[in-house]
């Protein structure tokens, strides 16, 4: 049986932080994430893609949105590498200092076992690692964001506190730089698991359906990339089914490995053992696993399943805003989903009679939805989209006939909910945590309603109506509200922390009472609502948990919890890593860069001297650049020249970041091997497919002094999960200098069956020719990056090497 120090279940705000801190401290870490990775550019957008973007493995769906429907409320959570950070609206607010209490159903309140003072150092660490910034409303073009100004005006008129909250978004290409729309982002020191160029926010309102630009500093770009850099094995498409204590200490974890491209009714259950198990599968996932495993954990507290709440979430709409007799644009799709926050004071702040505190934030929706507003001709495309939406909602509510609100939603849209003068409002706050999660028929069931939090919801709705009046808008409840149903994206509780097992499932550090080494690191551990958006607080709790877990093993000689590392911010550029350029040309290497069915994580096959933890890593200097090539291939053709010209040809594109982690080693090695990360896009291969592992050889010897080869070998899987290898070759041949551009910009490619090592051959699935266009080449020249102490000199050395090789081939004719 496989055995590691730490297993982390889930990759959201709790799991990613814990995985990073454990890996950074030198522990062997395996992170199990049920969903798939989503590099920039792969989030679903078309109706067909969105129709399969839901999570239901029994129906063959492995998408990002996991929708739960209970009596009284519905909930949307995320499945994918990065967890909830993939679809959250980027707000990273600290829990208010005086709000560390839980209101009791019968009146009064109970102080949390953790305070703001306890969390502040961990808030600092998380903010630095993720990289936060406020919306630059005072600078063009960001100053033209009508919804932010409308929120500001409403708050001023109503005498409420307005702020631009910290957002986990990159508006500038690097720290301290001027913000700009769509600019390339500087690579962080720990690299990126996706290997795809990220760009700054382009104000498209797509944050909560996945950022295809990579502007969102989601956990896959930050904590998880850093965890992988330090050796964590990130196993995507791995769903945990249960766990139990292990004889002699530690835990055994059962999981299945989903093949998201092949529907299977039954998958083999595998088991991994660990000394420490960190549950971070989200409020529903973690509580469900604990309830399922209760027979194996007889000492679990009776508090399991209690203190559930929706963090006071409420969605409403402002419609048809006017300024005197003119339409007042609110333009909800302009900017990120949330730009602004209005804070409603709490009685605990010293405001008599205020009640529990709350926040109201502007909501947004993707800019591409604008064309669906009323007034457009009902052409075939609009009819298809409306039909699609209707079917999705019917499917969503099919098991709860009393909640089918398709007609109400249709009426709302028909009244202009998506028009330029309308704006969704998002409310949240300190509701009453009196819900309960339990198993019924083997499924998770929730008992909770808005009844005990009526004062909270009434206050939110009253304030939102006041905002509507100020902005000359009509106010509209969510159509579900008349049935007293809400939608929450912030479920909390179920395995709450407490001072003892009679009060909670785990202690103030997340360790489960009675089970050493078993931790809860997500929203399930919250003993009540956070109030503001809970993501930052969950991450800070996980950081604090990690310190305690590491300190508890120090007495066994495993080392103390290290302080947060310097220079690991989301946009830091000083790179001291050496992750290796991959195997030499004659070595196959595991296709995904790691063993155990994963495309991310540590390469267990590399010697210790080649890893970023080696003592000499800091002395090495890396160099990288990004290349885009486009062309044509024909499937069923084996000759590249014929494949480029055949009538059945189709387009193919790749975007690769070529990285030499050690420039000196790269230049000295005869094959000049570098790592290639990125994606290949072809309809015949299933669209855009991530490169699982790739190599690039720059001016490899070809047996003659006047001939060089520039070679590419990329492992990926097609849309049906079949392994494929793209091999490409640029022939740099003896001839006049006028041949330099055609030779270095023309790539003859073949797509092979399987993951085929250098020196072996296989049947060609397709063949063709790709080129780099002059505009793409000009952009490529701007992507060269170096990091390390000798960056500038490394760039000069590379330039001399490149020019020197060209001279060896073309120089004699130029003389």
UniProtKB/TrEMBL annotation:
Coiled coil: none annotated. Residues 555-621 are annotated as: Disordered. Its cofactor is FAD. Pathway: Steroid metabolism; cholesterol degradation. Residues 484-542 form the Glucose-methanol-choline oxidoreductase C-terminal domain. Keywords: Cholesterol metabolism, FAD, Flavoprotein, Isomerase, Lipid metabolism, Oxidoreductase, Steroid metabolism, Sterol metabolism. Residues 200-293 form the Glucose-methanol-choline oxidoreductase N-terminal domain. InterPro entries: Cholesterol_Oxidase (IPR052542), FAD/NAD-bd_sf (IPR036188), GMC_OxRdtase_N (IPR000172), GMC_OxRtase_C (IPR007867). The keyword Translocase does not apply. Its EC number is 1.1.3.6, 5.3.3.1. Pfam families: GMC_oxred_C, GMC_oxred_N, NAD_binding_8. It comes from the Bacteria. PANTHER family: CHOLESTEROL OXIDASE, FAD-DEPENDENT OXIDOREDUCTASE 2 FAD BINDING DOMAIN-CONTAINING PROTEIN. Belongs to the GMC oxidoreductase family. This is Cholesterol oxidase. It comes from Actinomadura miaoliensis.
